[in-house]
Amino acid sequence: MDGVQQIKQLITQKDFATSLDLHQAFHHIRVSTEFQPYLGFRFEKIDYMYQGMPFKVAITPRIFTKTLKPAIMEVKKRWKSRKLAYADDILLLNLDQQMLRQETMEIKNFLSSLGWLITEDKSQMEPNQEFEFPGWLWRTKEMTFQLTVDRRRCMLKELRLMMNKVKNREKILVRKLASLIGKIRFIEAQWKRGPLHIKQ
Fold first, then answer.
1. 144 in the Ramachandran plot: left (φ > 0), alpha (ψ -120 to 50) or beta?
2. E strand or H helix at 194, and its extent?
3. Which intervals hold domain Reverse transcriptase (predicted)?
4. At residue 73, what are phi and psi to the nearest 5 degrees?
């Protein structure tokens, strides 16, 4: 799922946007008791097991998306604002600021009635023409997007660390390299020439 491409197709100039963040969304999904022992750990001689779906398990996003789909389909039927669900975030777009404000509250209440918790401080309830989603800063007046300052700072730090390891001929874990390549692929929406350097 490429969030940037989906937003590009969905967005129109001068759109207003709001977003809803589902609180610890993956944990809402209960893990079958027969699988819980495989999602456990031991700390100070005490065993702990996840009862809700944990993060960092490969199938978690797929199962979560399937679980949320009926609610999103109902939201699409009932309200006019354009919508995009991306992992545990829901983006709402509309040229009409007042309609978007009202629909955002109604959708929030609808999701809450289904048992989903909304993280107020991570959600953008007030319609704005500048918004962050997912890890990008979007400006609908100018129809531009760029990496958020925090994400850009983290990316530069990781690249510098990797360059130093290469210069010093230090061992690099395959997992770390794969993670960095994944992050470079994420930003290729803004810097088209980034992938050329990966192939060298």
1. beta
2. helix 194-198
3. 1-138
4. -60, -40
Q: Which two tokens stand for residue 44?
A: 């100070």
CB 177 within 8 A of CB 166: no
Q: For residue range 125-163, list pLDDT tens digits in order.
A: 999 999 998 788 999 999 988 888 888 898 899 999 999
Closest CA to 93 of 12, 194, 200: 12
- Contact between 65 and 31 (Cβ < 8 Å): no
- State phi, psi for 57 to the nearest 5 degrees: -105, 130
Task: Count CB-CB contacts under 10 A for residue 172.
Answer: 12
pTM attached to this predicted model: 0.77
**Max Cα–Cα distance, the chain, nearest Å:** 58
Alpha helices in 79-173 (DSSP H): 97-113, 149-167
Instruction: Using alpha carbons, list the distances in angstroms from residue 94 to 14, 23, 128.
Output: 9, 24, 10
Residues with Cβ within 8 Å of residue 70, at least 6 apart in sequence = none
What length is written for the chain? 200
